[in-house]
Amino acid sequence: MTHIPFTGQLINMCASLLLLIAFAMLSQRRVLSLVHLFAMQGLILAFSTTVVAYSSHQSHLYFSAGLTLVLKGIILPVILHKLVRRLDILWDVETLFNIPTIMLVGLALVVFAFNLAAPISHMAGTITRSTLGVAMASVLLSFLMMITRSKAVPQVVGFLAMENGLFFAATSATYGMPMVVELGIALDVLIAMFILGIFFFQIRVAFDSLDLKHMEQLKDD
Amino acid sequence: MSTLAGMLPIDWMMAIILFWLLLGLAGLLSHNPRFIVQIVFPLGAVAALALALAALAGTAQTQVATAPLGLPNLPFHLRLDALSAFFLLLLGAASVGISVFSSGYFRAMPVSKLGLLCLEYHVFLASMATVLLADDAYLFMLAWETMALSSYFLVTTDHEQPEVRQAGFLYLLMAHVGALAILMSFGVMLGAHGDDSFAAMRHVHLTSTSASVAMLLALVGFGAKAGVLPLHAWLPEAHPAAPSPVSALMSGIMLKTAVYGLLRISFDLLGVPQWWWGVLLLTLGLITALFGVIFAAVQVDMKRLLAYSSIENIGIILIGIGLAIIFHTSGKGALAALALTAALYHALNHAFMKGLLFLGTGSVLHATGERHLGRLGGLIHGMPRLALLMLVGVLALAGLPPLNGFVSEWLTLQAFLLSPGLPQPYLNMLVPVAAAALALAAALAGFVMVKFYGVVFLGRSRALAAVPPHDAGAREQLGMAYLALGCVLLGTLPTFVVLGIDPVAAELVGHSLAGNVRSTGWLLLTPMRAERASYGPLVLLLVIGTGVLFTAWMVRRFYHGRLRIAPAWDCGFPEQNARMQDTAEGFGQPIRQIFEWFMGVVKHMPSPFDVTPTFHSSVHDRLWDLCYVPVQRASEMLSAQIGRLQQGRIHVYLLYSFVTLLVLLAFVQ
Hints:
heterodimer, A: mainly alpha, B: mainly alpha, two-stranded antiparallel ribbon, 24 helices, 4 strands
C-alpha cells in the first residue's frame, strides 16, 4: 500500500462525503433537507478545492474555492430556501419509483462510474486522481435524481448538484478549468437559478401545482 | 479606384448589388407607397440597366475581386468572366423591364405588404447577381440560399390564401433539397482540400467516378431549381401563386441561374466533361421539353400554362448544353460552340419573352381578376395595346421568324443537322430522333401559344359578369414594350447576339464562331458555312412586312367598299352566345386525347339519365404519383415512428439523455 499524504487523505475523505451526500439526496423526501444537503455539498466542495489548491500550489484554485463557497455554499442555498418557503413546499417529495429501487440503481451507477474512471485515473498524474470515479458517480447520481423526482424544485436541485459533480471532476482530473471557463459557468448557474425560479412561479400560476406531470398537457398531438 | 472612371466592371457590379440592397431597405423603412413605386422601383430598374452595361463591358477580360465580408479568414471571392458576364447581362437587361413594370403594377398594394415586397424583390435581384459573381462555394451557397428564401417570400406574398402557402412550401422544400445536392456536389469537388474557392476546385484532379458523382449531384440540385424532370413539380404550383412580376423574374431569370450553375460546374470546375453527361442532359432535356409542352397544351390556367412552357424551354436549353458536351468530348469544337451558343441564346430569349408574357398575364389579372382561361376572352377589344405587346411575346415563344425564339431554336436544330458522324454509333442514331423530338416540341409550342392568345384575347368575353377591362397603366406598358422591343431586336440582329455570346463559347469549349459569323456580314447569320445554312432576319422581316402591307392594302382597296355588317349565319341556332366559342379545354382536347396514357386524365361522365348532366375532366401529373407520393408516404411513416418518442413527460426526456450519456460513456471506454 502506497503512502498517501495527509492532504490526499483529506481529499479522499471529502470525496467520500460527497458520494454519501449524493446518496442522501437520492433518498431524501423532504425538500428543505434537500436544500440543506445541497448547501453541505457546496461547502465540502469549497473545502476540498482549497485543499487541492494548498497541496498543488495552484493559486487560481483559491479563487475557485472562494467562488464555490460564496455561490454554492451560500447564495444558491439561500435563494432555494426562500423559494421553497415562499412556494410553501417544505415537505413531501413524491418519487416516481420507490426509494430502495432507486438506491440499487444508484449503486450500479457508482460501480459503472468507477469502472469508467479507472483508466483515466491511471493516466492522470494529479494528487486527486483517485477521486475522479467519485465525481463521475455524483454526476450520474444527480442525473438519476432529476429523472426520478416529479416536482420541479428537486429537479433543479439535482441539476445544480450535477454541476457540483462536474466541478469536482474538473478539479480532481486536471486541477480545475481555466479561470474564465469557471467564471462563465458560475455565472450560468446563477442565471439559470434565477430563470428557473421565475419558471417555478409561472408553472404554479399555469397549473396550480409544481408537479411536472401537468406539463404533459403541453404536448401537441 | 480613386475615380469613378477607374472602376472596373466588377466593382460597378458590387456597387450595384449594394445599391439594390439599400433600395430594398429604403422600401422596407419607408411608409410611403408612392415613394416605393415611383422612386425605389424605377431606381432599381436604372441599377439593372447599369448592371447590363457593366456586364457588356466586362466580357473582355476576367476580373477577380475579394470582398472583405463573411466569416473571419473566409472572405468572399468574386470573379467576372465571360460566362458570368453573359448571365449578368441577361439578369440586368431582363430585370429593367420587369422593375419598370413592377413600379406600376404594385401601386395598388397596401403599404404594409409593399415595403416587405420591395425588400424581398431587391434582395432577390441582388442575390441572383451575387450567385453569378461568386467565386467560392461559400459565397455561392450563401447567395443561392438567399435567392431561394427571398423568392419563397415573394411567392407567398398573398399568404392569406392556403393554396399559396402550400405552393410556397413545395417550392421551399424543393429549393432546399436542391441546395443540399449542390452543397454535396461542392463537397465532392473540394477533394481532399479544405479550400472552397472555385480557383482551387479547378485544379483538383478528380477521378472520373467522383467527377461524375459531383456532376450528378449538381444536376439534381440545379435541376430542382430549373424544373428539369422529374423535379419540376414546384413550377406549375409556385408561378400561379406568385405575383406576376415575381413569376417573370423567377421564370425569366432565376431558372437561368440554375443553367449558369450547371455550365459553371460541368465545363469550368470539373474541367473536361464526360460524353455520357451530354447524353444524359440531352435525354433529360428532350423529355423535359416534350413533357412541358404537352402539359402546357392542356392547362386552363394562364400562369400554369406559362409555367409548363418554362419547363419546356428549360428542356430546350438543356438539349443545347447536352449537345455541346457531346460535341466537345468528341473533338468537334466548332459544333460544340454552336450548340452552346444556341443554348445561351435561348436562355436570353426566354428571359425576355417569358418575362413579357408573365407580365402580360399580370395585367390581364389586374384588369379582369381572372386567371382561368375559361372565363377570359375578347380582351383585344378592351386592351388593344396589351394585346399587341402580348402578340409579340406569343409569336416569339411560338418560335416564329423574325422574332427571337426562332433564331435560337433554329441554331439548336442547325447544331443537330450539321452534326457529322459521332464516334459512338448509338449516339449517331439518337441525334436524328432527338432533332425530330425537338421539332415536335417547337411545333407544339406554337399550338400552345395559339391557344393561349386565341382564348385570352380573341373572340368574345366568356365571363358572364364582365367588368369592361381597361388597358394596363403607362409604366406597365413601358416595361412590357421594353421587353417586346428586346424580343424584336434579339430576333432581327442575331449576328450581334452571337458575337456577344462568342467569348463564352470560346471560354468554355475553346472554339469560336466569330470567324464564320463575320464572314457574311451583319445582315446574314451564318453559324457554320454559307453554303450550308444562313438566316437573314431583316430580309425576312422586309418580305413579311411588305407582304402584310400589300395584302392589307389590297383588302382595303377591293373589299372595304363592300363591307357589310350582318348577323352571322347561325347554323339553325336561334341565338349564339360567348359560351359557344372554342374553349381552352376544347382547344387542348386533341392533345389530351393523344397523350391520355401519358398524363393522368380524370373524367367524370354524367349518366345518360341525368337530367342536369355535368361533365368535367382534369389532368394531373403522373410523375407526382410516381416520384413524390412514395417519398411523402415514407417520410410520413418515419415521422410517425419518431413521433412516438415524444412522450411529453420531462422525466422521459431526461431519461433519454441519461441513457445516451451512459451509452456514450460505455462506448468511449
